[in-house]
Amino acid sequence: MDVDDPSPRVGADPPRIRRLEESVVNRIAAGEVIQRPSSAVKELVENSLDAGASTVSVTVKDGGLKLIQVSDDGHGIRFEDLPILCERHTTSKLSAYEDLQTIKSMGFRGEALASMTYVGHVTVTTITEGQLHGYRVSYKDGVMENEPKPCAAVKGTQVMVENLFYNMVARRKTLQNSNDDYPKIVDFISRFAVHHINVNFSCRKHGANRADVHSASTSSRLDAIRNVYGASVVRDLMEIEVSDENAGDAVFKMDGYISNANYVAKKITMILFINDRLVDCTSLKRAIEFVYSATLPQASKPFIYMSINLPPEHIDVNIHPTKKEVSLLNQERIIEIIKNTIEEKLRSSNTTRIFQTQAVNPSALTHANMQKEKGTEVKMSSGMKSQKIPVSQMVRTDPRDPSGRLHTYWHGQSSNHEKKSDLVSVRNVVRSRRNPKDACDLSSRHELLTEVDSNCHPGLLSIVKNCTYVGLADEVFALIQHNTRLYLVNVVNVSKELMYQQALCRFGNFNAIQLSEPAPLRELLLMALKDDVLMGDENDEEKLEIAEVNSEILKENAEMINEYFSIHIDKDGNLTRLPVVLDQYTPDTDRLPEFLLNMGNDVTWDDEKECFRTAAAAIGNFYALHPPILPNPSGSGIQLYKKNKDCMASGEHVDNTDEDDIDQELLAEAETAWSQREWIIQHVLFPSMRLFLKPPKSMATDGTFVQVASLEKLYKIFERC
Ligand code: ADP
Ligand code: MG
To answer: C-alpha angle 272/273/277, rounded to 5°?
Structure first.
């Protein structure tokens, strides 16, 4: 060979390209169509529905790996068609490509049965109308193994698939190791039963007497849902419907049922049929989830049944081999319409008119957030240099000294997945170790929730649900209007009660707020004791001892308060996480020491119910919308931010507010705190109250709600003027 040959020298000849054996090609293709036992079941049930069946029975053994049997009473298969029934691309549902545009049946590729014969043993028994007997025949690799044998048969077709994936060792292994596919199969059949209400479905394990899904044909969709998912789901459903009115040729119709604010579940159930095909549409699902978490954060895992109808030519069903995902013409617009319809429904079902009497002031909040973020960043980077901030600096010794504010600890709401899953796993570990009943099932918690319900004042409930927020009257009271009446509402009291009730509702299921720095319990408790005016004269040693005792109490009960209330204390006695009691809301950390002292002092630890009540009350008190600790700077309050303390103390020169004299930094912080609180009251507290608060009877008489005027009377007065 020429040494100057410029072509790259390769050690060996390039690999030969060969044509794959047909059986290998088929098996690979089959593995794509039939990915797991549940996908085989889905295909078989769809065939039965395509055959016009009114009864479909499914029997499964070993999660479908040993046996899947689907029997129907449909039109059956002609004797002459049996030889090619399981060949690839043989179908009765499509003849020309153009037919695809208008196809209404679920199958059309003629691949499902064929695929099953490449990865399992398929036996078909079928009889067509008017025949005296049926035929039975087995298939392997697309062809009949023997001539069809006459046999006795009842109306319709029965397809039996045995030893699925017998020739795909790896697939069979992973399926055997992974979870049994049976729950998925039950899930599929349940969904079909909700949509095809004229068909009787049953699904059972081989040999079991009881069916796990058993639906009788009915004329009502709600009956069908009740049948399969239970009465408790149906109770919380609302009907929903929309069609595209703008389009001249009415191209789009949607109807279904969606859950309301009372439906609380761990995960979303989304049953979606597009042109009667059970499909997934990830972007629609995401959009709906988004609407729920924005409108009903507490019920953010909804139950959705939705049926969408479009002209067949507007759907491309051919983008996925199993037709699982479909693509729609004008998908974005359709999703937008559905999203808006759901949002409207949720809002109108939970609140009546909400008037925006105050302009939203997002700039104040953004400003506040930016400040917070900036602060966190600085603190975090100093933390990374592992300079622990001395406790003395975390202590707010002077309300006008911003450096000691507890924002040091602030990290904000943990929203990323890692933290959440971390939390979940922590909770699971605790659970499996202690093996208690599911936290949410504890009867004491139920009793407390029932007390909340039975103690609810119907009149106040109606006011809360239907009121219009007018504005803040002062630091504690907000003004609301209900019908023709004006009321003052004590914001601190109602928020305390709301947080208490939410702590019970979310019990065992909180998201977490992660503190940027672990906060040492003992020091925080000491801080609270020093602030406590009642403790004023006790000596420091005694306070130290009390702090020690309380911190021990909390540490002893750490596992429980973490599991039930997501208050996490690490092994060194540091507080690291707090619960999210209301979405979009974090409590004022200046009150953290007081909260811990309450937890230590006021919680009854030896009685389950009292423990939950008192702990939830302590949380309620901490998360309530108290006025910020920094004095309100508006009006004459600005005097409090003068640098010259002597002058402030003596009360002289009060009118003289010289710009230079004001501690601008502290003033800005106070302004932020107050405007943020006002924003939260209007945009978080009141909307959440409308949805969740059950005002106790005591609030009618203890000054929490005070009627200040009746407009009718006012009008009469004006008339006289
Ligand atoms: P496709 O459903 O895409 O047509 P399949 O492989 O699932 O392809 O089925 C091939 C054909 O077998 C169908 O077109 C239909 O004519 C017939 N068939 C399958 N299952 C049944 C059944 N349960 N009842 C009647 N005919 C059936
Ligand atoms: Mg089919």
So the answer is: 135
